[in-house]
What we know:
By secondary structure, the protein is mainly α. It has helices spanning 2-34, 36-81, 85-101, 117-146.
Amino acid sequence: MGASTDQAHKEVAASRARIDGQLDLLEARLRYDLNPRRRLRREGPKLAAAALVVSLVAVAYVARARRRRRAERTEEVDWIAAMPEEWRARLEELIAEAADSAPARAGRERRPRKRPLLASLGIKAARMAAPALISAASERVSRRVGAPHS
């Protein structure tokens, strides 16, 4: 019986060694598959191609949307050309009359500043802060008046 027990121990030890070797191989394979740098090297070209396709689709979509908007804008202007000739003539007359009667302005007229910009901003800030300062000061005075003198 001693020989068969020794033989069984040797077989068990050999099986454990094979299993340990397989576990080491599996662990190495798992580490290799899960390593982000190696995975990026391995799948980088696929990811780059996918990013390129997505960006091309986005550019095509934006270009078509802009082209569609431009076409809509030109359709909005074409209603004048679709008018009957006498209506267009009357419209041109009305526009000419309005241009002649309106005073010529190059833009929005501005009043000259009476004080510098920083002074105006300072005054506006003081007006905004005044109510808070007055209430804080009145609370402080009321606390002093209500406090007993020692």
